[in-house]
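[Automated response] Your request has been received and processed.

Submitted sequence:
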Amino acid sequence: MGLNTRFLSMTLAALLILGSGACAAPPVTESGTSDSAVSAPAETTVAETSTAGLPVLSGKATVEMVVNGSTIVIEVNGEEAPITAGNFVDLVNRGVYNGTVFHRVVREPQPFVVQGGDPQSTDPSVPAQMFGTGSFVDPDTNLPRYIPLEIKPTDREEPLYSQTFEEARVNAKPRLAHTRGAVAMARSQAPDSASAQFYFALADLPFLDGSYAVFGTVTQGMDVVDTIQQGDRIESARVVEGLDNLQTSAQP
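Generated structure:
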């Protein structure tokens, strides 16, 4: 990798994690500007995350998402990322993503990510510059729900939690990589700050592997993802297969 390419990759990765303190997306600010793509809520301090009571997907599921009248099909992989996948499927099933905005789209200077899923972006009283700072608030607790960073290395049978591969000194590759069409959770600097915001990878992004949790892939409709513009909304999202694999974690 040349110096210019390496510098650009490091810059994009920094945008994903620096953000403005967000808690759930891959890049930088929550304002919807092109300076961030994978970081989310910034206004909260996230305590150590327990997995007890979190949704868990014990196998795979299929989600159909409609954007601009066209369908995107996502295979959600609970075999490799059970909590991350379970969280996404649960939110889809609750209707949380319906009407939410894609607030961050980064295609220049090279294809990067399309990010959305902030629940507060459906509220007309919330200004657009705040999109990307919200989390899912569990109606049962009236508290934001966060999930731990969850990435399974190829040389392990169980996922690594709450640490990046660099922090844990893991040299293996993740089982779910940031290839074009990957679907992953956005977060802020805190590893356990992902909540609802997610992103589509517009290209192979290996420099994000081991730092952000991939939980699925686009199996149909990547051409639709390629046309999404900042401000476009998810018209609907529904689980069409595998909902019976959704359970609740009893782990502490």
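Summary generated for your ticket: The chain has four helices and 14 strands. Residues 60 and 77 are 5 Å apart (CA to CA).
If you did not submit this request, please reply to this message.
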